[in-house]
Amino acid sequence: MPVTIKDIAKKANVSVTTVSRVLNNKPDVSEKTKSKILKIINELGYNPNGVARGLVLNRTHTIGLIIPDIRNPFFPEVARGIEDKAKEYGYSVIYCNTDNKKEEEKKAVELLLNKRVDGIILSLSMNNRDELDRIKKQGCPIVQIDRKVPDANYPTVTIDNLISAYNATKHLINLGHKYIAHITGNLDTKTGQDRLNGYKKAMHERGIHISQEWIIEGDYSKESGYKNMKRILNLKNRPTGIFIANDLMAIGAYKAVFESKLNIPEDISIIGHDDIELASLVNPELTTMAQPKYEMGKHAARLLIQEIEGSDQDNNQNILLNTELVVRGSTGGVG
């Protein structure tokens, strides 16, 4: 019969819990006891079984990740940061994609809870606050990433989207643009609302009039960038600059501009947000606000796993990361 954790505990004359703590490299076991247990493990040829260890510790050593759109290159970079940090702690990741749909968010939460994940990192729409509370009632730790549900008192890793959008819009203003449009993100998200407010703040501070027809709601997809840019280009008073709430929509907007036989930035300057890899591959290269996507993922995984493992650190915290303006060829002065 295969050696079990109980066999090791019996021979070492310690509890099963003590053996488990050694197997999981926990700090509160004396070096003497730890050496004794490791010696017995080697002698008996014990090979730890992940399922068995999970039953002993009431853990699965998996975490869930709920993201809105796997097609958006922003989220795979975030997910890579989460997965790399999770591996350092000996955890695996289960991914769920919701296509920005509230009902799919609920289904993803249900799936992960049924899988008995040890914690969940998630990016939800604002009107799904109940899902956060439901997860917490199940005793499952939570970290919000990228999109924060307002007044939800759970750890969060994000950026200051208002300031980031303000800086993006200010870049166009500093180039001399006074007619500046904005294709927003999904306004059911805090991210979308904050970027809209950042755009408005920059315009108001400089005393620049905002025409309501210049603000059009998108959904972060390339298709909505294309469709909404077509609408803007058909306006009687066409803007000379545009801040688009993410790079994927900006790339869709490029297609609309070129189909209209216009040039970037000579006829219209475009600035995006996120700095996905495609931003530097289009022609002209896209000016954008760079987010630390990979670092966001690593921070989120660290916060979650520390809470799962009962770290003494204060995990009820918000980590706010900075963005950086990356100036490329898609923005220029007013001709």
Write down the Rg: 25 Å
CATH domain class name of the largest domain:
Alpha Beta
Main beta sheet: strand number and arrangement?
Answer: 6 strands, parallel
Uncertain stretches of 5 or more adjacent residues = none
Q: What does this protein look like?
A:
- It is built from twelve helices and twelve strands.
- The radius of gyration is 25 Å and the shape is elongated.
- By secondary structure, the chain is of the alpha/beta class.
- The mean pLDDT is 90.
- The strands form two sheets. It has a six-stranded parallel sheet with strand order 2-1-3-4-5-11, with helices on both faces.
- It has three domains: 5-57, 434 Repressor (Amino-terminal Domain) (Orthogonal Bundle); 62-158 and 293-321, Response regulator (Rossmann fold, 3-Layer(aba) Sandwich), CATH 3.40.50; 161-291, Response regulator (Rossmann fold, 3-Layer(aba) Sandwich).
- Strand 8 (241-244), helix 11 and strand 9 form a beta-alpha-beta unit.
